[in-house]
Amino acid sequence: MSASHPAPEPLNSGTLSTSDGHEIYWESVGNPDGTPIGSQASRA
Questions:
Q1: Closest CA to 9 of 24, 35, 38, 31
Q2: Phi, psi at residue 27, to the nearest 5°?
């Protein structure tokens, strides 16, 4: 299967350790100068 867009490169990534010994991988991608999704006012 071919992708219509290349996979984005993460701007930042890392792991978080949990109290039960597991690790959670995280990464942030997107426009570093863009507005975060949660910051936009809702429109009626």
A1: 31
A2: -155, 155
Phi and psi (nearest 5°) for 23?
Answer: -125, 140
Tens of pLDDT, residues 6-39: 888 999 999 999 999 999 999 998 888 988 777 6
Question: Which residues make Cβ contacts (< 8 Å) with residue 26, sequence separation at least 6?
Answer: 13, 14, 15, 16
Who contacts 30 (Cβ-Cβ below 8 Å, separation ≥6)? 8, 11
Q: Residue holding tokens 């978080």? A: 16
